[in-house]
Amino acid sequence: MMKDNEGQLHFSKPTAFIEVKIFGDASRDIYSRMTKKLTAIYGDILGVSPDRMYIRYFGSEKRGYYEKI
After folding, report:
1. pLDDT tens digit string along 48-66?
2. CA-CA distance, 46 to 32, in Å (whole number)?
3. Chain-centre distance of CA 44, in angstroms?
4. Residue 14 CB: number of other CB atoms within 10 A?
5. What's the domain count of the chain?
6. Which of the two ends of the chain, N or C, has the fewest CB atoms closer than 10 A to its terminal CB?
7. Residue 31 lies in a domain
8. Which helix (H) or strand (E) holds 14?
């Protein structure tokens, strides 16, 4: 990975950044299992090696649906 003068990131190999939003929170074990499955799925779809994927998880304690919170 290299950064140019404008702060842009450049990669020498295909790389994927994945964001996942979940309701509530999960244990470290659950995140680990999701990571393993997601890297396999996206590896097949995108052709990116799992060691070139970066996954960021977002949990949400509050959520709204059909006029309710």
Report:
1. 999 999 999 998 877 677 7
2. 20
3. 15
4. 11
5. 1
6. C
7. yes
8. none
| 19 in Cβ contact with 56 (< 8 Å) | yes
Predicted confidence band at 23 (pLDDT cuts at 50, 70, 90)?
Answer: confident
Cα(36)–Cα(42) distance, integer angstroms: 10
What range does the domain containing 42 cover? 22-60
How far apart, in whole angstroms, are the C-alpha atoms of residue 69 and residue 61?
A: 11
Residue 55 domain-assigned (yes or no): yes
Does residue 49 fall inside a structural domain?
Answer: yes
Burial (CB count within 10 angstroms: exposed 0-12, middle 13-18, buried 19+), residue 39:
buried
